[in-house]
RNA sequence: GGAGAAAUACCCAAGUCCGGCUGAAGGGAUCGGUCUUGAAAACCGACAGGGCGUGUGAGCGCCGCGGGGGUUCGAAUCCCUCUUUCUCCGCCA
């Protein structure tokens, strides 16, 4: 949610900033609604003040055994005078709210405008791996090495799913455990969250109302619940409607969860195997900070995510997203994209974002500053990392001429000492 | 799933039967002070926050006793509804 005062004071600025991400708005109607709202509030409150005063007198009169006929006459006169105004006010408040909930976050000043094409690669780790043999893609490798079973997954679930089998399951779990240990070392709090969330959580995170068709809803649940599309949705909601102590900031959390996404219509031909599915695993980091600290926190999350990639020894690039490619709730996003040799494409395995006060405003997540004043926190999140996309990258980047895969050194302890994935008989 | 009980401020807790002098007793925590070499204890003092409207401002007003609605001149208190927590029973990993 954007700051209403900011819109009221400088609608042109907001309009221009949103245009950078390709979002067109006109605030004229909105400003009129706000003005109308304030007018109504003034009128209603005046009448209420008078009524309160008179009602209080009734009590006093009764105690003193005075006649209250006069008072009741007066109350009767004003009683229904603002009924219509109250109805209008409620309607206007709803309209205002709906409008605000549909506005995306303002992109940071330094972002380029435009869509994906304007993303900028800001750094690269290692050279593209070169192979002097014909490489296999991760589907071939996973199948021949017995790591993934796509067919039986289709049988028991449907398309867009897979089963991690044997060493495949172990490798996926090794990644998760490795990441968890790294975050614990850095002092982040480990939370395992519910996967079924309520509507308010989706609204605060910024998924709803705009993207409520992108998640899986549970039938027959009342109030309705959806499957979390990322642990961020849960983590960013745990302090909803709270005022945090300054001493409690920054808060640094991480969680592992499967991520459930409908990905309606976004399936692309090169996205075979486990590049895009209805369910994938991810470790997610979230920070709550003061506004002053959020830029540092962003860097910290970035470094943490990149460090994991470096320790795995993968070739990747970091992209600074253009305003139009930054998601609805975020002011800035850097993606870490891993190289997939078979399709010669970099695919996102981590997305580090600063929402600034956008989510905090939606969820009334606040803190008390040095002067004792209440202000919104900043929320940030970063994948650390999406394992289900990492596994294909590891298979492809670390494959050998024999069709085996070298296990990244940092994962070997988590694999029970297994250094190479070879074909099982 | 069934049957009960509850939700009051940072925490505990009174008030709810019998609606008005209750924006809410009391205690703890916290903060400030006295005392002390320092600390503890004791004592004294402060301590309802938050949202919204209005005003340059001190302030004033509206809404706030889990959320939403209703009854009433007036609701923490009465009614409806939702959510959550606890206890018991059933079922189950």
Q: Could you describe the 3D structure shown?
A:
This protein has two domains: 26-101; 116-421, BirA Bifunctional Protein, domain 2, CATH 3.30.930. Helices cover 38% and strands 21% of the residues. The chain is built from 13 helices and 17 strands. It has helices spanning 4-9, 11-19, 28-63, 69-79, 83-101, 138-144, 150-156, 167-185, 199-205, 231-235, 294-312, 358-363, 387-397, and strands at residues 120-125, 148-149, 163-164, 189-191, 196-198, 225-227, 242-244, 251-260, 279-289, 316-320, 332-340, 345-356, 365-368, 374-376, 378-386, 405-406, 420-421. The strands form five sheets. It has an eight-stranded mixed beta sheet with strand order 1-10-11-12-15-9-8-4. The protein has a three-stranded mixed beta sheet with strand order 7-13-14. The longest helix has 36 residues, at 28-63. The termini are far apart. The mean pLDDT is 91. The chain binds one RNA strand of 93 nucleotides through residues 38, 41-42, 44-46, 48-49, 51-52, 54-60, 62-63, 68, 71-72, 74-76, 79, 223, 243, 364, 366, 374.
Question: Layout of helices and strands, plus pairs?
Answer:
Blueprint: H1 4-9, H2 11-19, H3 28-63, H4 69-79, H5 83-101, E1 120-125, H6 138-144, E2 148-149, H7 150-156, E3 163-164, H8 167-185, E4 189-191, E5 196-198, H9 199-205, E6 225-227, H10 231-235, E7 242-244, E8 251-260, E9 279-289, H11 294-312, E10 316-320, E11 332-340, E12 345-356, H12 358-363, E13 365-368, E14 374-376, E15 378-386, H13 387-397, E16 405-406, E17 420-421
Helix pairs in contact: 3-4, 3-5, 6-13
This protein binds one RNA strand of 93 nucleotides through helix 3 and helix 4.
